[in-house]
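Repro:
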Amino acid sequence: MATSSGGGSGSGGGGTYSYRNGATHSHKSSSKLDTHTHKPLSLNSSSNSSSKNHVKSKSLGPSSTTQRRNSTTSKDHHPSVPGRVRVAVRLRPRNAEESVADADFADCVELQPELKRLKLRKNNWDADTYAFDEVLTEFASQKRVYEVVARPVVESVLDGYNGTIMAYGQTGTGKTYTLGRLGEEDTAARGIMVRSMEDILADVSLETDSVSVSYLQLYMESIQDLLDPANDNITIVEDPRTGDVSLPGASLVEIRDQQSFVELLRLGEVHRFAANTKLNTESSRSHAILMVHVRRSIKGRDAGHSSENGNHPHSVKSLKPPVVRKGKLVVVDLAGSERIDKSGSEGHTLEEAKSINLSLSALGKCINALAENSAHVPFRDSKLTRLLRDSFGGTARTSLVITIGPSPKHRGETASTIMFGQRAMKVENMVKLKEEFDYKSLARRLDVELDKLIMEHERQQKAFEDEIERMATEAQHRLSEAERNYIDLLEKEKSKYEKDYMDSIRKLEDQLDMCSSCRL
């Protein structure tokens, strides 16, 4: 994967096309993971360079306080709240080639970070001024970029909102460095993807919550799974009722520790398409999209957990299901816009550049339509815009970082990037809490309780049957004993009567004998 913050210019012409790991275009690695197939500002800035020679954007109001992660208030209805797309601009330093070629020329931009403004020079005496939510100089650290661009969005996702972090800019200006740098050799260089997961895993409880990840690329209008290269034509599914989009065919990997997530990113970067152009030795030829699904149990985590394991003697006291929040973080590393005459693309690389520019053009049209409150927004013109429908004009909290270079020879591309960011700042999302009742969890709890009741019933039934059998055996024993006693009693009575009978006979005989003697 690319590691240079500037993505320095290559020396080749039309460019050698390759994966990021150096493999040729026709090769696809078989490596795959085991998968389970889960602040608005008060005033918008605006500028129009065609209407004035010297344009100043309106001042920006203060950001609203981000909802804290320890909030657990549950409501039956959660109204949407406005949340303007926040835009930061980041300038990369001059690379070695620019330091030589532009040694006699001033940078085409002048940053004023304390005022959150930048000046785009037209010539030596005139410049246009633009205001942004954040202005990050070439000396800004990766940590600083994460704090101002990504952390508010990550915190919102942990609170149960959808969030999007996206990098836009000319090829070679440091988008992949900003978002996807792993920082294995230098931890201070870790990008937004790695730092976001660190914060997420530090905040969730893996006993009651879950974090799962999909990693995709949009290449030549085809959505491909970076974790399973054979899965190279994933379909977008739209909910006809809500308009929400999903990718049910994408791999979904559960994350339980930071190291496994870094391995996942490394595997994804191996499969991502890149090429060597005049502007960038490792120019991304696809849009990379990381989706992090965070599912959090809000009420009764401990009780719900013990109930599912059957440890609580009174696990089901109410039929009210537990509450869960399902936030989704989308991190988008867009392929860089490029002018063919400058990048030197030809052959298949040229076709890739055309596809990249078309999708970015479609995104720009959607941003323009949203900024102008147009009745029609052409989201369906590209798969990229369909995937980002919730990010711009939807329910997600979105933060955009636009990356620019200092070279005056790329002033046109820099101006285009700045104007894209200015229009994006006018887009208003209606941020909505993704909270719902967890009926599946309730069903599992009821199943556990039903199993316990069935087991208890079977135990009682067996105990009852055993008691009946015992009583029957005891009754039989007592009956047999009574029969024996009765027989013994009858025998005794019989013996007594026989004895009395014999005594009576003897007495009669004796009396008879006496009578006979008296007659004589």
